[in-house]
């Protein structure tokens, strides 16, 4: 049981009603609520002094706040959280809202991106908030890839697809990576990525790693058998071949050549392992392609609320999300069913159009 749920469970009926009425009034008009106002609305007849005492207790619990000394109360962030989790009554989706959202998917002639853009615009219009639609990641042949450092633990990968689509994803690069190592990774991938999807490139790199591993094993077998070399951390991801009696190899030109070849293969193997890790992180990275269907194109989450719901593809896998960003006094009871229904619509769109 969370702290807010526990607090709510321990409240008596009077405290719970005072809290609920303060929050509902605030969400409706944004104004602080005073004790005299509540005396006219309470289901039982109580004095303004009694309600003030209840409000003071709720303020002590961190659920209400006073904007000014003589003003009424408004809910705090914690208070809104508790209200949404425990007291919110979610209404049914209104027919007008349903029809407006259904109309966004009326055309089958355009692509998914255009449909999602329309969904975002409609969601913003219906809710009067800033809408957010995270599009599913694109799976098409890639034309170009670029890695850009954003700090010591964040990087951006820019994917340019053959169909002209451009997608940015943020990821956490492996430790120790430098701008030059990321450029090297991008150059290596761009040399072989043409016409391949991200998944196909991952398979190709895995095959390359397996081939290098097998070649190293074959070349090192004779050295290990003769006792001139031994595996350190055999079977580990980053094993090493330790050479014993290096002087003895001078008498064997073939042995020296094999050793040099193994060294070259190890360097290549490590580079491809780094590339494989970059690709894996790229595939898992956060999609940052966002459609905003409101006139205010820039918004801050500071002091705002986000009502968000994931949507799934035909395989019931979560591939994106839709949401509404607005002031903390959103009409949650109305917004929640709209967002939920929109997520279902987008999921059906993605499933129908592959």
Automatic annotation (TrEMBL):
GO terms for molecular function: DNA binding. SUPFAM superfamilies: GAF domain-like (SSF55781), Winged helix' DNA-binding domain (SSF46785). It comes from the Bacteria. InterPro entries: GAF-like_dom_sf, HrcA, HrcA_C, WH-like_DNA-bd_sf, WH_DNA-bd_sf, WHTH_transcript_rep_HrcA_IDD. Keywords: Repressor, Stress response, Transcription, Transcription regulation. Belongs to the HrcA family. This is Heat-inducible transcription repressor HrcA. It comes from Roseovarius aestuarii.
């Amino acid at each position: 049981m969370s702290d807010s749920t526990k607090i709510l469970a321990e409240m008596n009926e009077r405290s719970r009603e005072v809290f609920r009425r303060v929050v509902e009034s605030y969400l409706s008009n944004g104004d602080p609520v005073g004790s005299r106002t509540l005396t006219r609305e309470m289901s039982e007849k109580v004095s303004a002094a009694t309600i003030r005492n209840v409000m003071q207790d709720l303020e002590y619990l961190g659920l209400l706040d006073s904007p000014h000394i003589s003003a009424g109360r408004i809910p705090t962030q914690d208070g809104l959280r508790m209200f949404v989790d425990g007291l919110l009554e979610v209404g049914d989706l209104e027919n007008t809202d349903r029809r407006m959202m259904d109309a966004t998917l009326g055309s089958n002639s355009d692509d998914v991106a255009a449909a999602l853009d329309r969904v975002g615009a409609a969601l913003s219009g219906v809710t009067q908030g800033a809408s957010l639609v995270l599009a599913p990641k694109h799976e098409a042949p890639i034309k170009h890839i670029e890695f850009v450092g954003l700090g010591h633990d964040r990087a951006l990968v820019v994917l340019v697809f053959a169909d002209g689509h451009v997608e940015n994803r943020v990821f956490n690069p492996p430790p120790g990576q430098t701008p030059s190592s990321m450029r090297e990774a991008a150059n290596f991938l761009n040399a072989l990525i043409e016409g391949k999807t991200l998944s196909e490139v991952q398979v190709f790199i895995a095959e390359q790693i397996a081939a290098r591993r097998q070649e190293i094993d074959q070349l090192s077998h004779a050295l290990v058998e003769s006792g001139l070399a031994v595996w350190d951390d055999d079977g580990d991801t980053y094993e090493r071949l330790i050479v014993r009696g290096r002087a003895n190899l001078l008498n064997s030109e073939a042995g020296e050549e094999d050793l040099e070849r193994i060294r070259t293969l190890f360097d290549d193997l490590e580079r491809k392992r780094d590339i494989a890790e970059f690709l894996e992180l790229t595939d898992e990275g956060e999609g940052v392609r966002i459609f905003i269907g409101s006139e205010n194109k820039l918004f801050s989450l500071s002091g705002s609320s986000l009502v968000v719901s994931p949507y799934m593809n035909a395989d019931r896998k979560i591939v994106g999300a839709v949401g509404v960003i607005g002031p903390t006094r959103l009409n949650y009871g109305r917004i929640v069913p709209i967002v939920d229904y929109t997520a279902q619509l987008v999921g059906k769109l993605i499933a129908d159009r592959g």
